[in-house]
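Retry 2 of 3 after timeout on previous attempt. Resubmitting structure tokens to design endpoint.
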């Protein structure tokens, strides 16, 4: 036990100085090394007590084969866990911990979610916190009869005034779609990843307020229905 603690602390120090190793993989190495040393120590102790460990190792080997056959899915999770730790598609953060079978993470509303490693490694992994900057994608619709040049100028001004919107890459405002009831603009400012939702909410609110002041209408879905021949001719009065 003393040796396992000593070696694990030494490994933690070395891993902390290695920038290429993820925290998930580092924790896995430390825990695995500690358990291997304890297992070896147990076998040495049994041998020192003159306990014949040959049959014990044979039983462990046979049991290991049967367990591996019965737990094929778990072994798949094990292999996926090793690949995740080595290739580091994500690290600790929203992902709180990881073991050889599953990943534990916390959602923004603080729910604890456990995902099998196979499901993580076998599907697309989107890491929204993996880069320093992100693009905010907003869509604003105006009435078809409104001035599109005036609306575009308002959105460009809102983004240029916001202190958290980056100048490089430059924000983009373009007419994107002629929809059924509106002319839709895309509004795409770039921000630091940690400021994503602040900018999203601020720009949405400010654009709505500026549109109201300048008489730009955000239309609701509507449809004109023309009915022909649905009613008989009205009888003459009297």
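Retry 2 succeeded. Sequence:
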């Amino acid at each position: 036990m003393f040796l396992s603690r000593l070696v694990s602390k030494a490994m933690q120090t070395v891993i902390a100085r290695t920038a290429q190793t993820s925290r998930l993989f580092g924790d896995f190495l430390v825990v695995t090394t500690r358990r291997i040393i304890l297992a070896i120590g147990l076998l040495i102790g049994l041998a020192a007590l003159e306990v014949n460990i040959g049959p014990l190792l044979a039983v462990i080997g046979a049991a290991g084969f049967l367990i591996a056959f019965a737990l094929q899915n778990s072994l798949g999770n094990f292999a996926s866990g090793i690949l995740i730790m080595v290739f580091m598609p994500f690290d600790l953060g929203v992902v709180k911990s990881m073991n050889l079978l599953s990943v534990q993470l916390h959602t923004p509303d603080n729910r604890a979610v456990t995902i099998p490693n196979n499901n993580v490694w076998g599907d697309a992994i989107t890491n929204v916190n993996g880069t320093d900057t992100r693009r905010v994608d907003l869509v604003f619709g105006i009435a078809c009869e409104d001035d599109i040049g005036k609306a575009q100028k308002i959105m460009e001004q809102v983004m240029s005034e916001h202190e958290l919107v980056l100048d490089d890459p430059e924000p983009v405002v373009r007419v994107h779609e002629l929809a059924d009831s509106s002319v839709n603009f895309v509004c795409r400012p770039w921000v630091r990843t940690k400021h994503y939702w602040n900018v999203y909410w601020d720009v949405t609110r400010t654009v709505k307020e500026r549109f109201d002041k300048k008489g730009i209408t955000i239309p609701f879905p509507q449809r004109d229905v023309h009915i022909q021949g649905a009613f008989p001719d009205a009888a003459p009065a009297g």
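Attempt log closed. The radius of gyration is 31 Å.
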